[in-house]
Amino acid sequence: MARKNKIGPMDRKVTFQSDSPTISNTGARTASFSTIATVWAQWTPKGLTGDEGEDFESNLEEGISQGTFKIRKSSEVSSVSVADRAVFESRNWDIVNITQDGRNNRLIISVETREQ
User: Fold this and answer.
1) What does the pLDDT look like over 83-106, one tens digit per residue?
2) Where are the domains of the chain?
3) Within 10 A of 111 (CB to CB), how many other CB atoms are there?
4) What are the CA-CA distances from residue 104 to residues 10, 25, 32, 65, 74 (Å)?
5) Is the dihedral of CA 45, 48, 51, 54 positive or negative?
6) What is the Cα 76 distance to its own chain's centre?
7) Of 107, 95, 81, nearest to 10 (Cα)?
8) What is the pTM of this model?
9) Alpha-carbon distance 7 to 86, whole Å?
10) Contacts with 66 (C-beta within 8 Å, 6 or more apart), sequence order
């Protein structure tokens, strides 16, 4: 019988990328991103749990979307930092904070993006 993996609430794919700029002969800097890792994550949009309601409302007016990704900590995501970005649902998200959850086996990555 085939074994089925249970992914539970970590049912979204997110890609983490680092900025690897290229410099032309004239010295112009062009942003170029390279993939660090693509992993399963639990996505929680900020404001849907009823916490921080006022901030959520004002962020909506300013066109800012926020949320968190909970991911399993691993060697492939150990280099992810606030200087990097997340790509989720075809949108680029700035990483604003990274904290450890539990016994050092999960990371909570807070992100935000401006509506385009």
Assistant:
1) 999 999 999 999 999 999 987 799
2) 12-114
3) 24
4) 17, 45, 31, 27, 10
5) positive
6) 14
7) 107
8) 0.78
9) 20
10) 45, 46, 47, 56, 59, 110, 111, 112
Task: Give me 50's structure tokens.
Answer: 């009823």
Domain 12-114 in this protein, CATH class = mainly beta
Cα 2 from Cα 65, distance rounded (Å): 40
Structure tokens at 114: 């401006």
Tokens of 89: 């649902």
